From TrEMBL, chain A:
It is a multi-pass membrane protein. This is ABC transporter permease subunit. Keywords: Cell membrane, Membrane, Transmembrane, Transmembrane helix, Transport. Belongs to the binding-protein-dependent transport system permease family. GO terms for cellular component: plasma membrane. InterPro entries: ABC_transporter_permease (IPR051393), MetI-like (IPR000515), MetI-like_sf (IPR035906). SUPFAM superfamilies: MetI-like. It is found in: Cell membrane.
Automatic annotation (TrEMBL), chain B:
It is found in: Cell membrane. Keywords: Cell membrane, Membrane, Transmembrane, Transmembrane helix, Transport. The keyword Metal-binding does not apply. This is ABC transporter permease subunit. PROSITE patterns: ABC_TM1.
Length: 293, 298
C-alpha cells in the first residue's frame, strides 16, 4: 500500500502557492530593501551605487536621530506608564469575583476600533475650542488651562501617547489577566492559609509567577513602538516641527515625498536591524526565565 | 504558543470556587477593587459616549454646551456624514477586501499547515516552516518602498487586488504558525480510519483534518479579519482612487477635509465603529481569543 501521506503532487499543490505568494510579496521586497539601501536613486533616473553611504548618512541625519529618539520616548512611556497600569487593572480584575467578564469586555473595546478611527477620535477630543480635554480643563481651572494639544511641540508627543495608551492597554490587560488566572488557585489559597495578605500575595506570589507574560508584553511593546506609524501619521504626521516624527513616518517622507528611494530603504533596513537587536536582547534575557507551578 | 492558547482558555473559564468561610471577608475587601475598575472603565468609555452625544449636536452646541446632552436627537449629522464621506462605499470596499483576503489566507495556510505538519516529508517541511516563520520577525514597515515598486511593476496600483494579495501574504506566517501547532496535536488514529477507507492526502485533509481544525480556523479568521479591516498604511499607499478607498483611509481623508466640522466628524466616526461594536457584542469571547492568539507575533 502506498503511504497516503507521501504524495509529492499533493505536497506541491499545498505548499507551492503559499511559497510563491510569500516569496513575491515578502521575501523579494525584504531582499530588495537591502539592495536599494546601497544605491542613490530617485525612482526615475539610473541607480548609482554608493556602498554604505546611506547608512553612514543616517548617523549624521539629525531628523533620523530625532525620530529614533521619539520612538524610544514612545517605548519608554509605554513601559513606564502603560505596563504598570496594565498590571494594576488586571490584578484588580483577577481579585474581584463578580462582573469579571464585564470588565474584561469593557476594557477590550478600544482594541477592536481601528487605529485610524482612534486617531480621528482623539483629534476631536484634543481640539482647542471644543475638545473634551480642554473643556474639562476649562471647567476645572478656567480658560488659562486650555492647551494646544496637537500643535504645541512640547505636548504633541504626549497627546499621541495618551491616545495610543487608550487604544492598547486593554489588549495587554487581557493577556496579563489570562496569565494571572492561569496560576493554580491552590497557590493563592496556600498563601492565605499562611496568613499572607492581599498586597503581599500580589507582590510575592502573583507578580513573580506572571513574569513570562511580562516578557511577552515587553517584546510586544518594544517591537510595536519601534514600528509605530498609523496613529502618528493621522494625528500629526510628524509635526509640529518634527516633534512627533518617528522612523516610519520619516521613512515614508524620504521615500515618497523626497523620492529618495535608496535612502528611504536604508531607513527601513535600519528599523529592521534596530528592532531585531532590541527584541533579540529581550529574547536572550527571557530564555533564562521559566516558571513552573 | 501552546502556553498562550492555554492561558486564553483558562481566562475564559476563570476561577469561581473558593472556601465558603472566606467569602464574606473577600467580598468586603472587593469594594475598592470594583471602584478602581469602574473608574477605569468610565475613563475608557467616556470618550466614546462623549462622541456619541456630540454626533447629535450642532457644531455650536458642541462648543457652548459641551457637557449638556444634545438639545434634541437629530440625525442630520449622520445624513451629512453618510452623504459627504461615502462611508457606505468605503465599507463595501473594506468588506470585500477583508473577506477575500481572509478566505485566501485560510485556504492557503490550512493546506500548507497540513502539508508541513502531517505529510511525511519531515526534513523539507521543517526547513520550509522555518523559512515562513521569518515573516513573523520582519516588520512590514521595513519593506514599504520595494513593495510599492513591486505593486507598481505588477500593474496592481490602484486596485483592490493589490490589497487582497498583500494582506493575505502578511497574514500567512502567523496563520500557518497557529494552524501548524493545532494540526500537530491531532492524534494519528484519526487519520488511520481515513486511510483504511482509501483516502489520499488531499482527502484526509478535506474530510478528516479540516473539520477537526474548525476552532483554530475561527481563531485565525478573526485575527486576520480584524487586522485587515483596520489596516491603514498599505491601503493608503496602494489605493489613491477615491472610490476604491477602504474604511480607515476613507475616514482619514474625511478627517483631513472636515477637521473643524466636529458634528459631522463625530457622526462619521460613530457610523464607522458601530458595526465593529455590534459584532463585538456578539462575538466577544471569540474576538478576544482570536486577537490575543496573535500576540506571539512579537
Amino acid at each position: 500500500m502506498k503511504p497516503a501521506l507521501r504524495n509529492p503532487w499533493t505536497y506541491i499543490a499545498f505548499v507551492v502557492p503559499t511559497l510563491l505568494l510569500y516569496s513575491l510579496f515578502f521575501v523579494y521586497p525584504v531582499i530588495v530593501s537591502f539592495i536599494y539601501g546601497l544605491y542613490r536613486w530617485d525612482g526615475v533616473s539610473a541607480k548609482a551605487f554608493i556602498g554604505i553611504d546611506n547608512f553612514t548618512r543616517l548617523l549624521d541625519d539629525a531628523t533620523f536621530l530625532k525620530s529614533l529618539g521619539n520612538n524610544i520616548y514612545f517605548m519608554a512611556f509605554s513601559l513606564i506608564v502603560n505596563i504598570p497600569l496594565v498590571f494594576l487593572i488586571s490584578i484588580a480584575i483577577s481579585k474581584v469575583r463578580r462582573m469579571r467578564g464585564f470588565y474584561k469586555s469593557a476594557v477590550f473595546i478600544p482594541v477592536v476600533i481601528s487605529t485610524a478611527t482612534v486617531a480621528i477620535l482623539f483629534g476631536v477630543l484634543y481640539d482647542y475650542d471644543s475638545g473634551l480635554f480642554n473643556q474639562a480643563l476649562r471647567a476645572v481651572g478656567g480658560e488659562s488651562w486650555a492647551r494646544e494639544w496637537l500643535s504645541n511641540p512640547h505636548l504633541a508627543m504626549l497627546s499621541i501617547l495618551i491616545a495610543n495608551a487608550w487604544q492598547n492597554i486593554g489588549f495587554f490587560i487581557v493577556l496579563c489577566l489570562a496569565a494571572i488566572l492561569n496560576i493554580p488557585k491552590e497557590i493563592g489559597e496556600a498563601a492565605k492559609i499562611d496568613g499572607v495578605d492581599g498586597w503581599n500575595e500580589t507582590r510575592f506570589v502573583t507578580l513573580p509567577l506572571v513574569r513570562p507574560i511580562l516578557f511577552v508584553m515587553l517584546l510586544l511593546t518594544v517591537s510595536g513602538t519601534l514600528k509605530v506609524l498609523d496613529i502618528v501619521q493621522i494625528m500629526t504626521n510628524g509635526g509640529p516641527f518634527q516633534s512627533t516624527e518617528v522612523m516610519s513616518t520619516y521613512m515614508l517622507k524620504v521615500g515618497f515625498r523626497s523620492m529618495e528611494l535608496g535612502y528611504g530603504s536604508a531607513i527601513g533596513v535600519a528599523m529592521f536591524i534596530i528592532t531585531m537587536a532590541m527584541t533579540g536582547i529581550l529574547h536572550r534575557i527571557s530564555r533564562t526565565e521559566e516558571v513552573h507551578f | 504558543m501552546d502556553r498562550m492558547l492555554q492561558t486564553n482558555a483558562s481566562a475564559r473559564t476563570g476561577t469561581t470556587g473558593g472556601g465558603s468561610g472566606l467569602n464574606g471577608r473577600i467580598r468586603r475587601g472587593q469594594l475598592p477593587m470594583h471602584l478602581l475598575l469602574w473608574a477605569y472603565v468610565i475613563v475608557t468609555l467616556f470618550p466614546l459616549v462623549w462622541l456619541l452625544l456630540s454626533s447629535f449636536k450642532t457644531n455650536r452646541e458642541i462648543t457652548v454646551n459641551t457637557w449638556a446632552p444634545p438639545s434634541r436627537i437629530n440625525f442630520s449629522n449622520y445624513k451629512a456624514a453618510w452623504e459627504s464621506a461615502h462611508i457606505g462605499s468605503y465599507a463595501v470596499n473594506s468588506l470585500y477586501v477583508t473577506l477575500a483576503a481572509c478566505l485566501l489566507t485560510l485556504l492557503l495556510s490550512s493546506a500548507t499547515a497540513f502539508a508541513l505538519s502531517r505529510m511525511r516529508y519531515k526534513g523539507l517541511s521543517k526547513n520550509i516552516f522555518a523559512f515562513i516563520l521569518i515573516g513573523l520577525i520582519v516588520p512590514p514597515s521595513a519593506v514599504f518602498i520595494p513593495l510599492y515598486q513591486l505593486v507598481t511593476d505588477l500593474h496592481l496600483m490602484n486596485t483592490l487586488r493589490s490589497l487582497i494579495l498583500v494582506y493575505c501574504t502578511y497574514a500567512l506566517p502567523i496563520t500557518i504558525f497557529i494552524l501548524h501547532a493545532f494540526m500537530q496535536s491531532i492524534p494519528r488514529e484519526l487519520e488511520e480510519a481515513g486511510i483504511m477507507d482509501g483516502l489520499g492526502a488531499a482527502g484526509l485533509f478535506a474530510r478528516i483534518i479540516l473539520p477537526v481544525t474548525v476552532p483554530a480556523l475561527v481563531t485565525v479568521f478573526i485575527l486576520a479579519f480584524i487586522g485587515n479591516w483596520n489596516e491603514y498604511i498599505f491601503s493608503q499607499l496602494f489605493v489613491t482612487t477615491e472610490s476604491l478607498r477602504t474604511l480607515p483611509t476613507g475616514m482619514a481623508t474625511f478627517n483631513d477635509g472636515y477637521r473643524t466640522n466636529f458634528s459631522s466628524l463625530s457622526a462619521a466616526v460613530i457610523i464607522s465603529i458601530l458595526p465593529v461594536l455590534a459584532v463585538y457584542m456578539f462575538l466577544q469571547r471569540q474576538i478576544i481569543d482570536g486577537m490575543t492568539a496573535g500576540s506571539v507575533k512579537g
